[in-house]
């Protein structure tokens, strides 16, 4: 292998578990590795993706930009999403995913020149501190007002990542941002995906931006989207639905969401919660503890694997063809929900007599 292709190969391998690597992987898989990947029949087969999960095709530069409502636009690379608002005083950008990176300004330039408005980003609103949504923030330099939650500032100060400058302006519970006569309502309604994940509502644009909660058309990424607060994340869709909106930006995958997408996602999670509660009662632990004796972890692992299968199997069946990749990640999410139902809700806890 030539030295020029080595870094690609290395990042391909190192990023194997990271959703951030997906666009890079897609590029690689379409090139030199396509034949090898197609020939590997040891890899598992999964159900086809429902066409409803997919969004518009990206252009030759690797992005799609579209209008949500009036002067509010969204950008995607097929896996990540950002949004921006053009105003008479400049552009407000919502998140800066590194996978979209330089295409953020390209998308803004494209729209600004078509409409004869400023292409200068004056504000960046941070949804939450995660690098996969903010890692292109530093591309916009120092002369930009970054706005985020106080906890986002604290976490970014901790992470000390030069690609994600800390917010210049912060808020605790609510903040209305007014730029160029436009209105953006920011709110923190408790922890969910992360302690700092906020609701970004544009009432005049019928849009809610709430990142890493619902990925329209798809089941959550591994482990319930790596949500740090499982009960808080389960509660988030209902909070999102209390706002009036027509367009939803979830930060992920190739299309925007509708209220119906939020309802389907909410039901998917509710079905998993029901399933794990049933599994806690229905799955008999005896055979696992009998077989593994004093290897407690072996008994616990196989017992919980059986509970996860019990909970996930009907949900996978129900949502295959409805939400993409139900057969890929539902079991992984069921495990996180099982642990939360046990540890947060206390279901199945038994007190020694
Ligand atoms: Zn995140």
Describe this structure in words.
The structure is a single chain. The chain has 353 residues and is an alpha/beta fold. The chain folds into three domains: 6-43, no CATH class; 52-267, 4-Layer Sandwich (Metallo-beta-lactamase, Chain A); 268-343, no CATH class. The chain is built from twelve helices and twelve strands. The strands form two sheets. It has a seven-stranded mixed β-sheet with strand order 1-2-3-4-5-6-7. Strands 8-9-10-11-12 form a five-stranded mixed β-sheet, with no helix packed on it. Strand 1 and strand 2 (72-76) form a beta hairpin. The longest helix is centred in the last third of the chain and has 24 residues, at 259-282. It is elongated, with a radius of gyration of 22 Å. Mean pLDDT is 92; it is low at 1-21 and 27-31.
Number of helices: 12
> Pairing-aware structural class of the strands and helices?
alpha/beta
Rg from Cα: 22 Å
The top-level CATH class of the largest domain is Alpha Beta
Form type: elongated
Do you know the CATH architecture of the largest domain? 4-Layer Sandwich
Strand content: 15-25%
Bound molecules: zinc ion
> How much helicity do the residues have?
25-40%
**Order of strands across the widest beta sheet?**
1-2-3-4-5-6-7
Elements, N to C (H/E): HHHEEEEHEHEHEEEEEHHEHHHH
Q: What is the CATH topology assignment of the largest domain?
A: Metallo-beta-lactamase, Chain A
Mean pLDDT: 92
Spans where pLDDT lies below 50 across 5 or more residues: 1-21, 27-31
- How many domains, in number, for the residues? 3
CATH homologous superfamily caption of the largest domain: Ribonuclease Z/Hydroxyacylglutathione hydrolase-like
| Major sheet description | 7 strands, mixed
For the record, give the distance between the C-alpha atoms at the N and C termini, rounded to a whole number.
Answer: 65 Å
Give the strand tally.
12
């Amino acid at each position: 292998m030539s030295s020029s292709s080595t870094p690609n190969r290395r990042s391909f391998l190192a990023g194997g578990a990271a959703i951030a690597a997906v666009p890079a992987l897609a590029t690689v898989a379409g090139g030199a590795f396509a034949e090898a990947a197609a020939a590997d029949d040891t890899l598992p087969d999964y159900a086809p993706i429902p066409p409803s999960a997919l969004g518009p095709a990206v252009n030759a530069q690797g992005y799609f930009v579209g209008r949500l409502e009036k002067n509010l636009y969204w950008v995607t690379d097929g896996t990540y999403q950002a949004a921006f608002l053009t105003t008479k005083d400049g552009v407000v950008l919502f998140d800066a995913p590194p996978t979209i990176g330089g295409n953020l300004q390209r998308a803004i330039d494209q729209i600004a020149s078509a409409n004869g408005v400023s292409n200068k980003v004056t504000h960046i609103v941070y949804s939450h501190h995660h690098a996969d949504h903010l890692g292109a923030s530093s591309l916009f330099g120092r002369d930009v007002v970054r706005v985020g939650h106080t906890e986002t500032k604290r976490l970014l100060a901790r992470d000390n990542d030069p690609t994600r400058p800390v917010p210049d302006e912060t808020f605790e519970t609510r903040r209305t941002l007014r730029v160029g006569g436009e209105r953006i309502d920011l709110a923190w309604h408790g922890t969910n995906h992360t302690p700092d994940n906020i609701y970004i509502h544009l009432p005049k644009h019928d849009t809610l931006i709430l990142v890493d909660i619902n990925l329209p058309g798809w089941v959550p990424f591994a482990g319930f989207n790596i949500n740090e607060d499982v009960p808080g994340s389960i509660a988030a869709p209902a909070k999102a639905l209390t706002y009036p909106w027509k367009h939803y930006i979830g930060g992920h995958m190739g299309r925007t969401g509708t209220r119906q997408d939020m309802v389907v996602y909410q039901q998917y999670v509710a079905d998993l919660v029901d399933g794990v509660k049933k599994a806690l009662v229905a799955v008999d632990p005896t055979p696992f503890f009998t077989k593994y004796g004093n290897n407690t972890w072996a008994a616990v692992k196989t017992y919980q694997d059986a509970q996860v299968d019990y909970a996930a199997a009907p949900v996978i069946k129900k949502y295959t063809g409805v939400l993409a990749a139900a057969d890929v990640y539902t079991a992984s999410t069921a495990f996180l929900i099982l642990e939360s139902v046990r540890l947060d809700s206390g279901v199945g806890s038994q007190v020694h007599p």
